[in-house]
Amino acid sequence: MAKKSDPNSKLIAENRRARFDYHIESDLEAGIMLYGSEVKSLRQGGSNLGESYASVEGGELWLINSYIAPYREAKTFGHEERRRRKLLVSRKELSRLWNATAREGMTIVPMSWYFNDRGLVKIKLGVAKGKKLADKRATEAKRDWDRQKQRLLKQNG
Description:
two-stranded antiparallel ribbon; 4 helices; 9 strands; 34% strand; globular
């Protein structure tokens, strides 16, 4: 039986450059601590993950430099647009992320954030290694070839 799509679960923002700039080794889902005005602004769709990253500091995981547009109706009790936001992960995942960043030189990149089926904001993080320029060119060439191949198959088939 096909699953009905839940009206609560929806994609808020996606970092499309992440897969182009990094080799994603693994990914995980994390919760995020937000103010009410931030959640309401996310429901309206005003956010950007393009320049943000996550880091383990002081035994906690933080999302740094993510943008959430101000919510106009929350006049005095609004939020800072680019504040640091605490991410919620288990201790086991936190230690794994700390090992990956401190010892192996990996980066924690936010891939997307979305509302899950219960209406909570979740963020998908990728543990990644940066690509060199040649790797980026190879990725772009492969993507262009795949597009061209699809066009040829569509015309001839």
